[in-house]
UniProtKB/TrEMBL annotation:
<dbReference type="InterPro" id="IPR011059">
    <property type="entry name" value="Metal-dep_hydrolase_composite"/>
</dbReference>
<protein>
    <submittedName>
        <fullName>5-methylthioadenosine/S-adenosylhomocysteine deaminase</fullName>
        <ecNumber>3.5.4.28</ecNumber>
        <ecNumber>3.5.4.31</ecNumber>
    </submittedName>
</protein>
<comment type="similarity">
    <text>Belongs to the metallo-dependent hydrolases superfamily. ATZ/TRZ family.</text>
</comment>
<feature type="domain" description="Amidohydrolase-related">
    <location>
        <begin position="56"/>
        <end position="437"/>
    </location>
</feature>
<dbReference type="InterPro" id="IPR032466">
    <property type="entry name" value="Metal_Hydrolase"/>
</dbReference>
<keyword id="KW-0378">Hydrolase</keyword>
<dbReference type="Pfam" id="PF01979">
    <property type="entry name" value="Amidohydro_1"/>
</dbReference>
<dbReference type="InterPro" id="IPR050287">
    <property type="entry name" value="MTA/SAH_deaminase"/>
</dbReference>
<dbReference type="GO" id="GO:0050270">
    <property type="term" value="F:S-adenosylhomocysteine deaminase activity"/>
</dbReference>
<dbReference type="InterPro" id="IPR006680">
    <property type="entry name" value="Amidohydro-rel"/>
</dbReference>
<dbReference type="GO" id="GO:0090614">
    <property type="term" value="F:5'-methylthioadenosine deaminase activity"/>
</dbReference>
Length: 503
């Protein structure tokens, strides 16, 4: 791969030395990595030289938490709390699995939208019931390899019956409905470990940018044996243990009802909180939870938009920041967000925390948000030595934005423009590992028009079948609504309500 030199650009490196302070300079890329950053750099005669005047070069954005399994459900649901929404987006009464071609296209569609909007790394915790299948996981890896994106990939693991992972469920749900939920024998921890080891042997590290992460769905949805086995293997392999914790009030009640403690305390007592542990959501954490997370070195994926759409509440991000907990930004799935744009999440995250109280010194600033979207997200994915900032030796995962567009005019403060004004439309070039994957608004790795046409042709039949599943699962709607009602009216002794973001 020849050298690439970007000259005379405005650089925003997000590294420890320069942080979010832009400066003028050049960046030299060789063999997919950043070889030098400075002024008046010289490349070899065969290098590709890109003029950077009036252009911003910054790290690619990191989507710290998403679910490609929702990509075909954009714009389908609203007005539902999580426990009800799950019935339709992830039906209890399941139908046939999505076929391999649609599985590939579904993953590719998420990658396409991500890349066009400046996301160079995604952490995809997709759902592929009823079993974990190596060939189907390989299909998702292949889609991301073809797109050119960097990704941590896993299919969510669980082995506790749905009704045993929800408070009040066995009491509230009529017996005739409970009898319909026969999922067969639960997966053992040993069986899942065998699967994971096969993935590490065959797919992990593919294309130099695709990794496997271990994703037990949530502590209440997994047996202690499965959680502990997942954590031990994650530590051994140096990958994240990626899980959902305390997204909703119902989940806050779950910990106290089932374990007599918060779910964070439950994980702490099992020994599965560590640097490897990445927690999606963290909305309903207490001060004691935050202290345990900080001591363990956990990371958080803050899903500012999906938490609002599903009425889950607002995570206490300032308190998490004050505890020095690493925070990344996630879109969550396209069904609970309706976009894969981290620019959208940055804007919302930059706004909602300003209602946390009258002490405006504690409000979250644009440079904090941009840190979460870049190096914070990389740390949450355990990729901080690879991506997330522009530094010599790191992968050349970067964006080039036009600073003469409407969204940067007049140009006052680049970081504030990025968080509050930009929507991704100023992006000219996206580069991953030194390869240009988007240029002048066009994907360079795949035929976007052909892929979209194929999706439009194949998807109506799939969505019609899914509509039938929705109709069947509507039988459980009133039960889930009652579980939500009971949980939200239950006092669990917390000092804050997550609808009030607190500080």
């Amino acid at each position: 791969m020849p050298q690439t030199l970007i000259k005379n650009a405005t650089l925003l490196t997000m590294c420890a030395q320069n942080g979010s302070k832009p400066f003028e300079g050049d960046i030299l890329i060789e063999k997919g990595r950043i070889a030098a950053i400075g002024q008046n750099l010289v490349a070899n005669p065969k290098a590709t030289v890109m003029e950077g005047r009036n252009r911003l070069v910054m790290p690619g954005l990191i989507n710290a938490h998403t679910h490609s399994s929702e990509t075909f459900f954009r714009g389908r649901y609203e007005g539902m709390p999580l426990e009800i929404w799950l019935l339709y987006a992830y039906p209890l009464l399941m139908g046939p699995v999505i076929d391999d071609r649609l599985l590939y296209l579904r993953s590719l569609l998420l990658a396409m939208e991500s890349l066009r909007n400046g996301v160079t790394t995604i952490c995809d915790d997709f759902f592929d019931p009823p079993a974990h299948d190596l060939s189907r996981l390989a299909t998702v890896f292949r889609a991301y390899e073809d797109a050119g994106i960097r990704a941590n990939i896993s299919s969510a693991a669980m082995n506790v019956h749905t009704l045993d992972a929800l408070p009040y469920a066995r009491k509230v749900m009529p017996l005739h409905l409970q009898e319909k939920l026969d999922f067969g024998p639960p997966m053992s921890a040993d069986a899942y470990m065998d699967y994971c080891r096969s993935v590490f042997a065959s797919l992990h590290g593919r294309a130099g940018r695709l990794n496997f992460m271990i994703a037990p769905s949530a502590p209440q949805r997994c047996t202690p044996e499965l959680l502990q086995a997942c954590h031990a293997l994650a530590v051994d392999m140096g990958v994240p243990l990626h899980t959902h914790v305390l997204e909703t009030k119902t989940q806050a009640v779950t910990g106290h009802e089932m374990y007599g403690k918060s779910l964070i305390a439950y994980m702490h007592d099992l020994g599965v909180l560590s640097r490897n542990t990445t927690i999606a959501h963290s909305v309903w954490v207490s001060e004691k939870d935050i202290a345990m997370m900080a001591e363990a070195g956990c990371s958080i994926a803050h899903n500012a938009i999906s938490n609002q759409k599903l009425g889950a509440g607002i995570a206490p991000v300032r308190r998490l920041m004050n505890a020095d907990i690493t925070i990344g930004l996630g879109t969550d799935g396209v069904s609970s967000n309706d976009t894969a744009r981290i620019f959208d999440v940055m804007r919302v995250a930059g706004l909602i925390h300003s209602v946390s109280g009258p002490d405006h010194d504690q409000w979250i600033r644009a440079d904090d948000i941009l840190t979460m979207a870049t190096i914070g997200g990389a740390r949450s994915a355990m990729l901080e030595n690879v991506t997330g900032s522009l530094e010599v030796g790191k992968a050349a995962d970067l964006l080039i934005l036009d600073l003469t567009t409407l969204y940067f005019t007049p140009l006052n403060d680049i970081v504030k423009h990025l968080v509050y004004a930009e929507n991704g439309s100023s992006i000219e070039t996206v580069m991953i590992a030194g390869q240009i994957v988007v240029h002048d608004g066009r994907l360079q790795t795949i035929d976007e028009a052909a892929i979209l046409a194929e999706i439009r042709e194949l998807l109506p039949t799939h969505l019609a079948a899914h509509a039938e599943l929705e109709a069947r699962n509507a039988a459980f709607h009133s039960t889930m609504a009652e579980i939500h009602r009971r949980a939200t009216s239950t006092d669990i002794g917390m000092n804050r309500y997550a609808g009030d973001p607190g500080t």
